[in-house]
Amino acid sequence: MLWIWESIKHVYATLAVIPIIPFLLVYFGLGAFTGDRKKAFRTAMDVTTALLIGCVAVLFDRIFHSSFGLYGILLIFLLGAGLLGNVQYRSKGNINVRRITRVIWRLGFFMMGLFYVVLMCIGIGKSFFNI
């Protein structure tokens, strides 16, 4: 049973290192299967967000010698959801949790993508210059 867990961890780590590969695989695979490129793009974003969260958390932990990476990301997501929920409640009078979750997850894709690029550049620079 342990080998299954280890295999899953290795597959996740491999896919998370270069997140453009799973994005393209899901996008073109689902796009060819369903024919709906818009839905394929959204699904590829959702899958890649999960991979980017793990990768950005590990990059943050390694670069800054911390263990706050994942917790910081979750904190940002929860604060964003709270702020969006407040705005939605004040404007419409009710809260649509599904819509808030989808918005936060999709914004997280762009945010994690930006953090991935920045942290990867910092990590490469630190290893190149032996800082």
UniProtKB/TrEMBL annotation:
Transmembrane helix found in the keyword field: yes
Q: Which UniProt keywords apply?
A: Membrane, Transmembrane, Transmembrane helix
Q: What parts of the sequence cross the membrane? A: 12-33, 45-64, 70-87, 107-129
Q: Does the keyword Cell division apply?
A: no
Q: What is this protein called?
A: DUF3397 domain-containing protein
